[in-house]
């Protein structure tokens, strides 16, 4: 029977997936049998695996890799990574939890990790279906959800497949110049000059909170994505485009931030899938491996450089950290679990973190704003600690409004994903496709972080697309009047 399956090439991926599933279930069964107290925790994880992983598994079995990059596909993949993969990693490293997640190990204290994770996992399993229901409603599919959700990207491909007569490079050139000016201002005002940047060994983690110069820098990335979408519709890309992409990658990586480059690359992949009707599973696998390798290499290089600059020997154990650049990216689950346990000890934030996200563009004008969710959680953990601890988007809802906030944030998340689906399905130009691709690519970051962090990333791209759309509308106005 196995030979017959292998002889059919299309069945090989299915056989491998089912084999991996059997091995996983056997391993979980063995773990539970050795530790009966784990039954409740692993049962919750199994439920989360079904709720978040069933749809991606279905798409993989049907070799529909393009739909994995649809808004709903990205939502389920991200939820699976955060609420299933990360907890399993922590449970497998429970003996060395202080190294795998020092903060979670500290707050779990003497409690058994399985019992400590029970409530956070149960709440996640309870509210994630709410996100699915609100997505179905906002996408216009209140009925027949599972039968129609596969529509995903193909409508977009039909709407933008007609090639444009020529590329409009003037907006690309203008945004590129603005971005370069923003990079220079960023380095001069927030780093202390190019000399200090070079002396620090590059890749110095400057941080994203640089206000308007940082917004100017992101004009560079917006120009690159717009150019890419124009090239897709023309069915050709100039070699100069790839020089432009490498230049943007160098500009943001030198400043020590990967987020904007990751959003740009994912937006490019989404736009590509919106134009092309097929995406090979081997191409997708290659891209995933390349992303994992690049993320780990960047994390390793930046950490090594920072330790060397500080006069300390490198203390990185790659084998123990197990692809740290990727697994550490899932660390917000740890902060979500901590938030669930410590939030009842504090007054609910009452929506103050959402006020920060909405009015953040006015902060450089001197407007006093409450703290964002990541910094609020840091203050709860240790008021003297720097930085932000992202509690995930649904965790932010809990910090603000308790259990009701969990349901509300899950519903808001589903609405956002539904609106992203609508934007993709209605894209009919390079500019609208670029805008819809960024909104879709921000879904993993929104699930992963909190409202303010996600809004900063999205608005730094979309502000430039909105400006171009406004200028285009103004320019078309007189022409329409002459035609009449």
What's the story with the biggest beta sheet?
A: none
Low-confidence parts, pLDDT < 50 over ≥5 residues? 1-20, 30-37, 142-148, 150-163, 201-210, 313-325
Give the overall pLDDT as a whole number.
75
Structural class: mainly alpha
Q: How much helical structure, as a percent, in the residues?
A: over 70%
Outline, from the CA principal axes?
globular
Count of separate DSSP helical elements:
25
What share of the residues does DSSP label as strand, in percent?
under 5%
Order of helices and strands: HHHHHHHHHHHHHHHHHHHHHHHHH
Distance between the termini: 72 Å
Explain briefly what this protein structure is.
By secondary structure, the chain is mainly α.
